[in-house]
């Protein structure tokens, strides 16, 4: 360049840049006159505010995709979907499940990913800039993530314990010859007498099936497998009710500490560290599921279990139950309105194709859920075959499937310790992915609200971990399982749906679906007319209507929380409703506070102004957004 000779490429680049600058200035001048707070006003300079400049970003090509996959594919895919599928018409359940994915789950996921990627902000700040009156939506999401984070890590603590004791020989839940076994403990594996030391009955070797049935009818004693008694009597040391707190279970408290240390170490450097861990934690469950599937197919009774899972009952498609269950499952599987999707996408590059990512993860979620059903029902079919009973009498969901049914099963396999370690390690990795995002949502909320703390991020992560551990101690008392069920019932239910409806209306009607599509095109390039019309229709009409259906369905199907035969006292239900409505109450209180902070009498115009984007609302990469907008317009002045 020093000899004064310029090649054609440099001249062309400079010419293009000048054209963009001229176009940008003219567009900016017109938009500022017409819409002082419009989001499409661009700055010539990149964002320099501390909130965006120092918050970090994904460092690897697939960090975000795998983190999103790990967050969306969790424990519910393994221990809830198969049960819902079998109880809602088998293979017929896939039809409403896919429909609800298209009209509810995927639209909300795509909306949140696009919104956060465009602004480069987490839930604590993004709604404050999008529409100040909606600022509480972000705080409500963070509160939901925080509450779920407390009890979700307890599941990880359980898996840590079960994985550790799986190395023992024999497995500790084998047989009823233990102090924790009650007279109701029933095992098929005792070697000697029909009546063991604790007076348990072992009918497999002592009686025929008919004799066992008659004896059981005569005794009218509920039979419980050793794995269930081990889980409740030894592991949980379960009290008689939520009102009987008892002391802290030190074994569980230690496991919970280990779980929080694991989470802290993986998140100590934010998305830079967690983005690397997910390469293992997001993919390893598929390896174990495949191994279990192959092993399950070789077991007697596996075919009957799988057929029981798949046998379609088309008549159930005419009932509201199957559509409601499908809507609830897909909504909570993809987890919109929890703040996690916004948090993950806020660390994306501005031009990342989040539409592709949303489609891939949504499809993987369905396929994983369906495949997990094959695995679970293959091994449950084997267990039913071994117990000489029906599949329906063995199937369970949730913690009962993971910590009672499967431990009972592995005792009947060759190399039981290997399969037990692999299964609980799979649950550990499934749980960690979701826990990473839940905790990152809380941490990001703190750092976005108080940007000066970014220099001490390690301290913030430490404080959140300590508070999380202390808050989780209620779940490791002798009444901890009752508290766990209470939080699981209420923490992510009503407020999540209400916040999702408010968010959908805010983006599609108040901010404008058309304007939002333009923002998406600034990130990912010009889209077809069909794309624009489809998503405008979905976001403005179909998804809000579907969310209202889910809300009404949940309301109609509501029943107070129970655990087995235990009925919770009225005060516990009241606490549950406080947990359920607290996040949305924050949304209302913040909106009222925002309105009251406006000077002068409260007018309709003040309300409308609080529903408009602020001056700080802008793309995370204004220069790139301006160039993309220039390309989409063909250089024509607007």
From TrEMBL:
Q: Where are the transmembrane segments?
A: 64-81, 93-116, 137-165, 248-267, 279-302, 322-347, 359-384, 418-438, 458-484, 490-513, 534-556, 576-595
Keyword set includes DNA-binding: no
Keyword tags = Disulfide bond, Membrane, Metal-binding, Sodium, Symport, Transmembrane, Transmembrane helix, Transport
Quote the record's binding site residues for Na(+). 70, 73, 77, 365, 430, 433-434
Predominant place of localization: membrane
Q: Coiled-coil segments, which residues?
A: none
Pfam families listed in its UniProt record: SNF
> Which terms in the GO cellular component ontology are assigned?
plasma membrane
What are the subcellular locations of this protein?
Membrane
The text of the family note is:
Belongs to the sodium:neurotransmitter symporter (SNF) (TC 2.A.22) family.
What is this protein's record name?
Transporter
